[in-house]
C-alpha cells in the first residue's frame, strides 16, 4: 500500500475537466454504444456496458437516451456507425499524450486532431510512439465516510485482487489489473459500499514535471483535445502543482 502519488493528481484533474464538458452526454452515449456493439445489449452479461450505463446515470443521462443508444448499437434502430481509434503524440515540453477517439469519420477526425497538436505546439505521433509509457489499469475510488473499518476494507480489496490501495484524507483509491477489476469492484459492492467512480484508465509509468508557462502550454493542448466532440478521453504524463492544475 502506498501513499499519495503523482498520477492520482493527474487523474483527479482529468475528472474535474470531464465534469464541465459541454459534450458530456455525447461522450457517455458513445461509451454505451461501443460497449453494446462489442458485447451485446444486456448489461448483466456485458460488464463494459454495465459500467458505461452506471457512469451515464451518475451524470443524469436520460434513460431514453441510454435505451436508444443500445438499440442503435445492436442494430434494432438505425443510426450512425462509430469506430474506436487511439491516437498518440507529444504535447510541448516532452509530455506524452494518449487519446481515445470515437468517430463516424476517421479522416475528418485525424485532420482535426493533427491541427490541434500543431496549433498548440505539439506533435501527433505514430502508433506505438508513447503507448508503451502507459499501463491499462483499473481504478476505483471510495469515500472514507463509506468505510467503517479501514483495515478490514483494505485487506478485503487486496484479497479480491487489488494491486494497491492509496489513502488520502477523505478517500481510498484502489488500483487493479484489468483482469481483477471486476472482482475487486464486486467485493466493494458486497460490503455495501458505494464507490464514487470505477473505470479502466491508462496510468503513466513516469511523469514530466511542468509549471508556469510550460504548464499553461501543456494543459492548453490537453483541454483543446478534450473539447473535441470525437475525443472520449485524454491521458498524459504531465505532473503539475495543484495551483497549476486549478488554473
Automatic annotation (TrEMBL):
<comment type="similarity">
    <text>Belongs to the TACO1 family.</text>
</comment>
<dbReference type="InterPro" id="IPR026564">
    <property type="entry name" value="Transcrip_reg_TACO1-like_dom3"/>
</dbReference>
<feature type="domain" description="TACO1/YebC-like second and third">
    <location>
        <begin position="82"/>
        <end position="238"/>
    </location>
</feature>
<dbReference type="Pfam" id="PF20772">
    <property type="entry name" value="TACO1_YebC_N"/>
</dbReference>
<dbReference type="GO" id="GO:0005829">
    <property type="term" value="C:cytosol"/>
</dbReference>
<feature type="domain" description="TACO1/YebC-like N-terminal">
    <location>
        <begin position="5"/>
        <end position="75"/>
    </location>
</feature>
<keyword id="KW-0238">DNA-binding</keyword>
<dbReference type="InterPro" id="IPR002876">
    <property type="entry name" value="Transcrip_reg_TACO1-like"/>
</dbReference>
<protein>
    <recommendedName>
        <fullName>Probable transcriptional regulatory protein K1I37_16130</fullName>
    </recommendedName>
</protein>
<dbReference type="GO" id="GO:0006355">
    <property type="term" value="P:regulation of DNA-templated transcription"/>
</dbReference>
<dbReference type="GO" id="GO:0003677">
    <property type="term" value="F:DNA binding"/>
</dbReference>
<dbReference type="InterPro" id="IPR048300">
    <property type="entry name" value="TACO1_YebC-like_2nd/3rd_dom"/>
</dbReference>
<keyword id="KW-0805">Transcription regulation</keyword>
<dbReference type="InterPro" id="IPR029072">
    <property type="entry name" value="YebC-like"/>
</dbReference>
<keyword id="KW-0804">Transcription</keyword>
<dbReference type="InterPro" id="IPR049083">
    <property type="entry name" value="TACO1_YebC_N"/>
</dbReference>
<keyword id="KW-0963">Cytoplasm</keyword>
<dbReference type="Pfam" id="PF01709">
    <property type="entry name" value="Transcrip_reg"/>
</dbReference>
<dbReference type="InterPro" id="IPR017856">
    <property type="entry name" value="Integrase-like_N"/>
</dbReference>
Amino acid at each position: 500500500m502506498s501513499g499519495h502519488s503523482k498520477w492520482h493528481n493527474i487523474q483527479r484533474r482529468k475528472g474535474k475537466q470531464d465534469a464541465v464538458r459541454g459534450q458530456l452526454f455525447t461522450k457517455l452515449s458513445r461509451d454505451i454504444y461501443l460497449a453494446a456493439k462489442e458485447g451485446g445489449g444486456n448489461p448483466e452479461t456485458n460488464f463494459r456496458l454495465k459500467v458505461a450505463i452506471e457512469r451515464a446515470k451518475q451524470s443524469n443521462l436520460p434513460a431514453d437516451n441510454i435505451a436508444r443508444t443500445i438499440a442503435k448499437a445492436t442494430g434494432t434502430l438505425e443510426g450512425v456507425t462509430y469506430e474506436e481509434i487511439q491516437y498518440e503524440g507529444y504535447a510541448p515540453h516532452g509530455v506524452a499524450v494518449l487519446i481515445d477517439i470515437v468517430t463516424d469519420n476517421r479522416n475528418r477526425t485525424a485532420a482535426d486532431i493533427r491541427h490541434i497538436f500543431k496549433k498548440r505546439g505539439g506533435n501527433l505521433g505514430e502508433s506505438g510512439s508513447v503507448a508503451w509509457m502507459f499501463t491499462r489499469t483499473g481504478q476505483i475510488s471510495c469515500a472514507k465516510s463509506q468505510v467503517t473499518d479501514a483495515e478490514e476494507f483494505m485487506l478485503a480489496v487486496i484479497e479480491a485482487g487489488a494491486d494497491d490501495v492509496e489513502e488520502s484524507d477523505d478517500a481510498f483509491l484502489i488500483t487493479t489489473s484489468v483482469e481483477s477489476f471486476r472482482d475487486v469492484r464486486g467485493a466493494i459492492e458486497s460490503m455495501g459500499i458505494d464507490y464514487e467512480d470505477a473505470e479502466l484508465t491508462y496510468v503513466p509509468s513516469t511523469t514530466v514535471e511542468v509549471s508556469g508557462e510550460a504548464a499553461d502550454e501543456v494543459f492548453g493542448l490537453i483541454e483543446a483535445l478534450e473539447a473535441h466532440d470525437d475525443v472520449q478521453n485524454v491521458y498524459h504524463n504531465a505532473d503539475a502543482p495543484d495551483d497549476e492544475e486549478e488554473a
